[in-house]
Amino acid sequence: MRKKRMKIRMILLLLCSAFVIAGGALESSQAQVTYLTMGTGGTAGTWYPVGGVLSAAMSKSKTVSVTAQASAASIENIRTVGTGERQLGMASSGLILFAVQGVEMFKGEKYPNLTSIASMLPNLFQFVVRDGSGINSMMDLAGKNVGTGAPGSGDKVLAEGVLKALGLMDKVKPMPLSFAEQVTAFKNRQIDCIFVAAAAPTAAILDAGSQAKVKFLGFTPEMRTKILTAMPYAVDDVITTKHYTFLSQDLPSFSTLTTLFTSTKVPEQVVYDLTKAMWADLATIKASHAAMANWNMDMAVKGFPVPAHPGALKFYKEQGKM
């Protein structure tokens, strides 16, 4: 009888031990999930929906969970990632370089810890006016209300950069509004020109175009030279009839690349895991927006404004890309 009781006790002890080990393993597994936030852009732009799809893809990793957040775009994202408030962000490549160097709008607030994960969609410079408004060129904007992007955004920096390069900054009436706010003001005839720097087609432009007949303002060769001299981080690009059906012909413009970036404060393994998970869901990402349809890894590893994060670099090296 005593032996039987001892056996029962041993079995119970073994079962208890098994439950403790299993519970510990479960707790350990749960503890390994790293929760991150990604700064994107305004809800009427391109970065917000694309960032949402990227975050969902990254979150398919068993070790990482990423939440996309709407923001004022580049400058806010750079500052929040630089200070650790967020861990991931999207920004125009030139502005990330400014932040690392502590120059231009980041003078006195250097962020040397920023690192790249992937180059993505180009941010096309798009100046849109109402057709029939009498505004037929950039120089006709003198005296007009011109949208310049949300306060503290990279769009504001880019809009003002173009206007300054053309000698228009002191002649226009700048309206520091987000994409969505510009569209509302445009519909109410409170501004004459919408400016967005975003991948095309852009939701804000489509929205404006659905309410009124609109057109883009182009640039003469002389204007192009002035803009590229003043903004060396911008590159030649084209707004095409594939982007917008209301265009009768392709229109030369400019763009800056979007960089998906992080900080050296985020561990190598975490960035490796989220980068791997992101590329494992490439088909979904490409289907998320017309601007991402041709995105591939060869494009993603080019044009980094700052070095790749060690975790991203490890993944790309495994793929034979870097």
Polypeptide structure, described:
The chain is of the alpha/beta class. The protein has two domains: 35-122 and 257-318, Periplasmic binding protein-like II (D-Maltodextrin-Binding Protein, domain 2); 127-256, D-Maltodextrin-Binding Protein, domain 2 (3-Layer(aba) Sandwich), CATH 3.40.190. Helices cover 41% and strands 21% of the residues. It contains twelve helices and ten strands. The protein has helices at 2-31, 47-58, 74-83, 93-101, 154-165, 179-187, 203-211, 221-230, 268-280, 282-287, 297-300, 310-318; strands at 34-39, 64-69, 88-92, 114-130, 145-147, 173-175, 193-198, 214-216, 235-239, 251-263. The strands form two sheets. Strands 1, 2, 3, 4, 7, 8, 9 and 10 form an eight-stranded mixed beta sheet that branches. A two-stranded parallel sheet has the order 5-6. The longest helix is centred in the N-terminal third of the chain and has 30 residues, at 2-31. The relative contact order is 0.17.
Say how many strands there are: 10
- SS-based structural class? alpha/beta
State the helicity in percent bands: 40-55%
CATH topology of the largest domain: D-Maltodextrin-Binding Protein, domain 2
Low-confidence parts, pLDDT < 50 over ≥5 residues? 11-29
Number of domain units: 2
Question: What portion of the residues fall into strands of 2 or more residues?
Answer: 15-25%
From N to C, what is the helix and strand string? HEHEHEHEEHEHEHEHEEHHHH
Shape verdict: globular
Overall pLDDT, averaged?
A: 89
Distance between the termini: 71 Å
**Count of helix runs:** 12
CATH architecture of the largest domain: 3-Layer(aba) Sandwich
Biggest sheet overview = 8 strands, mixed
